[in-house]
Amino acid sequence: MGTSPKSKLDRITTTATAWKTHRPDKVFAGLTLEQFNIATAPSITARTKIAAFESSLKAEISLREMADDKSADVIDAVVKAVVADPEEGEDGEFYEALGYVRASERAQERSSPQDQARRH
User: Fold this and answer.
1) Please, are residues 109 and 99 in contact by the beta-carbon 8 Å criterion?
2) How far apart are the C-alpha atoms of 83 and 88, rounded to whole Å?
3) Do 110 and 102 meet the contact criterion of CB atoms below 8 Å apart?
4) Interhelix angle for 5-22 vs 33-84, to 10°?
5) Is residue 16 within 8 Å of 36, Cβ to Cβ?
6) Is-contact 83 100, C-beta < 8 A?
7) Tens digit of pLDDT for each residue in 47-95?
8) Of 7, 31, 33, which is closest to residue 19 (Cα–Cα)?
């Protein structure tokens, strides 16, 4: 048997099931079936808690994604407002500080090498 968490759980459940089915009243390693179940209960409990944490994590990731989508919408609205603002615009310092390329710089990037050489 492997040592993965699933293999370990399979070993616990196989042992408990076989014991209960075939020798429920017999003592092995100084343990009754009930004592065995008590001794292995922390393994089961840990898995139950992990499953709950994983479920909670998935839910939180989903909430984060929805919140990020809303945040992106708000940021888009702010950027559009900056572009539309006559004191700011898409060629302003603030527009560039927001992570965008100024309109004048985009125009230079689009021009041909001959146009750029004539400007210099």
Assistant:
1) no
2) 7
3) no
4) 150
5) yes
6) no
7) 999 999 999 999 999 999 999 999 999 999 999 999 999 999 999 999 9
8) 33
Note if the pTM is more than 0.90: no
Q: Which residue, 13, 16, 55, is CA-closest to 35?
A: 16
107 burial (CB, 10 Å; 0-12 / 13-18 / 19+) is exposed
Between vectors from CA 112 to CA 106 and to CA 116, what angle results, nearest 5°? Answer: 80
Q: Is the dihedral of CA 11, 12, 13, 15 positive or negative?
A: positive
> Token digits for 116?
């750029």
Residues 6+ apart with CB under 8 A from 101: 109
Instruction: State the pLDDT at residue 19.
Output: 98
Q: Which two tokens stand for residue 78?
A: 């702010």
Cα–Cα distance, 103 to 81 (Å, whole number): 15
pLDDT digits (tens, 9 = 90+) for 7-37: 999 999 999 999 999 999 999 999 999 999 9
